[in-house]
Amino acid sequence: MKVSSPLQALPPARHPLWYGLGWVLVAGTLGVTLRFLSSGKEGLPSRVAGGDALFGEGTRGSVGTLTEQLGPNRMVLSYKTIDGSEEDLHLEQVTGRLEEQAGQWRLLSPSARRQAGIWTLQGPMDLGVAQPGTTTPLGRGRVDQAGPAIRWTGGEWEGLAPLRWESLAGSSRGVWNLPAGWRREVDGHLRVERGPVRWQAPADGPAAPTLKSMDADRLWATPGFQTGHLEGVKAQLSEGSLQASVADLSPETVSWPGPLAFERADGWRGGAQSGVAPRPAPGASFQQVEFRKFKAHRAMPTGTEQLSTDGARWTPAGLRLEGSVVWDQPVDGQLLTLKAPRVLIREARGADLPESLPVGHAVAEGQALLTWGRRSLSSPRIDVERATRRWKLQSPVLGRGEDGTFTGGAGQGDPHGWTIEGPVQVNLFSGGSLRGAKLVWEDALWTLTGRPAAWNRLRERLSGTRIVRKGDQVSFPEGLNGTLAAADGDLFLRAERGLSEGQKITLSGGVECQGQGWRLAADSVTVLMGPDRSVKLVQAQGSVSLRGRLGEGQGAALELEPGTQSVRWQGHVRGKGAGSGW
Fold first, then answer.
1. Which residues contact residue 236 at a Cβ distance below 8 angstroms, ignoring those fewer than 6 apart?
2. Given 119, 170, 178, 565, which residue has the most CB atoms within 10 angstroms?
């Protein structure tokens, strides 16, 4: 049995009735749509604000974008809600995009309002800029303060609240704090006419930065702070600070092109003709601050020490000085001056100075010269322990004193006394030279030791285990032997002690003298020299014994003239000889 259905009573699908009903439905839909559009009910506003009738009084909408030309740049604002009129338009939950030749800006603000063509964005808000045509970020900023944050007027920005900006690239990488009143001009340049502006170096590097921060009274900078100019600058450095009239930013450096003044925590004060901080490696912090024509001074218990050099590098570890370095140090009432092509002064631990250089020490390299009074020492390398003023000198050492000059091996000492390893050669201004295995130099006292040490002057050749020179005196406290020139040939000498002073040589203790064909022994002998430094007279005293062609005998004293080959005995004498002296 079949069940009847109402649908079975309808005409078939191709019946003309259905064709007519379809056209009626289309016509009705079009009519309703046209009536809705012309009724002005609530809906999406136009995407372009140009002053047409779509922005009449009471306009409201949601979820859209607004495009506006700001000078040469184009701004696109996306919003969640919009209401108002052409003269007073209000947006909520705004995301902005600004396309410029210098970069692509993004912003996020809770609300924005345009009145008489001027936009005011509310804070707290976020900003960001990327390189043109890329997504590589150059920096990002934040206005934390609620209320008016930025005003846009014809493409120019005015900061109504302080801005914290993090620069992500170039030498200006770090955090910038701009006060209310900062301006961004139509060409993208940032300006602050009334500071303070503050830049802080990033703290995420493997080591603490040398250049830590800068404060300035005025600022001019390009987008992202890639280049810029600061005025009235005070920079905080590790272990100190500097002040300069201006500072310039570039992608590679922070520089202070004019005169600057600085202070260090270790007591150094001074100035420089200019300074620069090279951009560190990616991910690192500023570790170098370099100065040109650097001068500094520091107070000490004994006076004021001073530094000057063509160039200096300020590091957390201390100072690296290069180029005509002059370091003056007061020591016990005298001025000790060190000159060298390069001097390293370590004040603290750090990687920029050699690890072998301890804290509190300094080293001068490149043929250093140390002078005090009329004395000087020169060496390829001089190390100093600054607290004790003890010095070490690398071989070879060249020295100069009041009495002469010398050359030697490695040395060490202080301004009062030096020990120079041999071989040592001393040349005296008064004539003559000394040679030995070691020199001890104490003020005007020169002590040479060796096996043997030698003393040579014109026709004099004397040697001993130890030779002491003081003023015009040359003494042999531990034995003497050698030769002197005489009229009849060389005179050979040997004694336990000897002293040469002016035109006289005094010998004592087991003295032996030997001339041409004769030999003399005595407790003490005095040899008088003529103007030509040849032996003029030999005076012997105490247990005198003479043998040879001038006679043989023993007595208390005698005088012998090699030139005339004559002998004059004094007192009782035993022996035989020719002449009035016998």
1. 212, 213, 214
2. 178
